[in-house]
Design goal:
- By secondary structure, this protein is mainly alpha-helical.
- The chain has 14 helices and no strands.
């Protein structure tokens, strides 16, 4: 395998929608406050998102290298692990992750100056700090409990909020959709631990799945997902700043996929990796496609009113 392909694999492009969707949702929300779309704000936001993604995936592999090695020994035929499988050395990922984080901060502080967005750089630093608290010493909250809540905060609220501010400044009516998106992001965070239940437990990692078990974790994430879709409906029904259909349409899309995920939930039991993969794929379609529908409708609505 060439070195370029090793780095592409380590960047985990299949996971990128987890941050690209909040980028699009936040930018669409921000259109409500900008008056006119800002291509510069979108490009700065995209650059920050990509660098933030690299910061997270590289340093997450570095931070999880020991528990990943445990999973490799327990389950030799599961998906590749960057460090235990010798794809890239730990030191290279550490340096690349730190470099990506510094570059992301540089982009944010530059955008703050160019676009006159006071506090944007500090907000970006806070966003990166959430991940540091999540997986890196000394806090490592994903190992001590609370990692799912941090992910819900970072992915579901802080990132789209940053992009909404970047695109539109302080006035953004679509922010009413973020509580629902945060609940859906919480469900995604819980689901991430399903396939690592036994190896995480063996490595001393305290996730919700290791604490309450596979079946109860699935019940909790499904309830969080339903609550998230319901919160979108409520946002459209009771917010004076967005129309009802703007909350209803993404909720309907999400609920369709959630119904399919629930129908195969019982098969996604401990160590049933293929079933877990299908289950999580449907859950992510509910979250990401629902949010993309919300983004597209928000953008069209704002541009129509402009």
């Amino acid at each position: 395998m060439s070195r370029a392909r090793r780095w592409i694999g380590a960047a985990k492009p299949a996971s990128w929608p987890k941050l690209l969707v909040p980028f699009l949702l936040g930018q669409a929300i921000g259109l409500g406050g900008s008056g006119a779309p800002s291509l510069s704000a979108a490009l700065y936001g995209l650059a920050f998102t990509v660098l933030d993604l690299l910061f997270i995936v590289f340093l997450n592999d570095w931070g999880d290298r020991e528990v990943d090695a445990i999973k490799r020994r327990m389950f030799p035929h599961t998906s590749r692990k960057t460090i235990p499988d010798g794809i890239l050395p730990a030191a290279a990922l550490l340096v690349a992750g730190i470099g990506a984080g510094m570059a992301a901060l540089a982009v944010a502080f530059t955008a703050e100056h160019v676009l006159a967005r006071p506090g944007l750089g500090l907000a970006a630093a806070f966003s990166l700090g959430i991940f540091v608290a999540y997986t890196l010493p000394p806090l490592r909250l994903n190992y001590r409990g609370g990692g799912e809540l941090l992910e819900a905060l970072g992915v579901g609220v802080v990132l789209p909020g940053i992009h909404a501010y970047l695109q539109g400044g302080s006035s953004a009516p679509g922010l009413a959709l973020l509580p629902g998106f945060a609940l859906l992001s919480l469900a995604s965070a819980i689901a991430s631990g399903l396939s690592d239940e036994r190896s995480d437990r063996a490595g001393g990692k305290r996730t919700l799945v290791t604490l309450v078990g596979n079946a109860r974790a699935r019940r909790l994430l499904e309830r969080a997902s339903l609550a998230g879709a319901g919160a979108w409906v409520v946002a459209g029904a009771f917010s004076e700043r967005i129309p009802f259909w703007l909350g209803l349409a993404p909720a309907v899309v999400a609920l369709g996929y959630l119904a399919r995920a629930s129908s195969i939930s019982s098969s996604a039991r401990t160590d049933a990796f293929d079933a877990q993969r299908r289950y999580k794929a449907l859950l992510h379609r509910a979250i990401w496609r629902g949010a993309l529908v919300a983004s597209a409708l928000l953008a069209a609505w704002h541009l129509t009113l402009a």
